[in-house]
Please model this.
Amino acid sequence: MSESYKEKYKKLKVDYNERKKKRDILRQLLSVAQSRCRTLNDEIGQLLDIIMESRTMSDSSDTDSTISSFSDGSDSDHSKDNTKILKELNNNIFNKKRKNNEIFLESESLKNIENDNVVPKKKRRKSSKRDSRFDAKPIKLLPRDENNNLILPVTVGKSSNEVNIISIGKVVYDREAYHSQRYIWPVGFVSKKEYISMQDPKKRTIYTNRILDGGDTPIFEVTAEDLPGESFTANSASGAWKSVLTELSKRGSTGAKTHASGPDFFGLSDLGVTKVIQELPNAEKCMRYVKQRWIKEEGNDTKAEEDNTNPEESNVNLEDDEMKNEENDTKNEEDPGDESN
Model:
């Protein structure tokens, strides 16, 4: 009994959903038909006005004697004939339009039913848009002291992309969210960037970027020098800067971007910074991270650094991570190209 009851319930539910879809389609068709009927009525009225105007003009061209001779009997006959002609004309126009509308509505209903049965496919981002980490790039070295320690602060980038690196931070390898296939997010990383002022859009101020320990996920924080006591935080670098740009827009700034690449604004996409971070202690323990390869110059020859990473396995991981990044980008309203290195 319980199984038959469940089967009946499932059938009723399916039947209900189908009828609901058909009802919605019929409502749409009804609204379309009503709007078309109103249009047809307007067209019929316009045609009647044109016919009456032409009839009036032809009648006014007759002589006074002809009008007077037929004023008693012929006018009534003409009016009856005109009424019949107008009725027949209206019926012909309405019937022709109705047939066309029926054909159109039937085709539209079939399209709607077919579209309801089609499951939309999720678009997948093409991996060709992003350059591969297996493409070796020229080595960019940041200044170091005699003991091979990085000299901080150091400025990277040029012109509007210039970022001042204050601290590199430490690698957190035992929590998956603290690195991706393209970036490592070291806790304690601090950088500064000059951008449009919060108080005066005509001026510029210094923004401080920080990566903080947020437990399971890192916290990306941005603060403005001319807006003390307020910070913009998110679970991604692009998300934090998205909040900054939104606030600038609310304050009337027209020169600010609508989206920003978080790694660019933090200075993490710079090749020199990439090299320093992936050489930090415990960086090799970040399992999902794909190490950037470099071009070595030996005399007149250029050779790529040897890497023991299996390209096929890493390519599979890259594709899987890109699918995850698409979902994270949608949640955080990030720019699609925020991780272009």
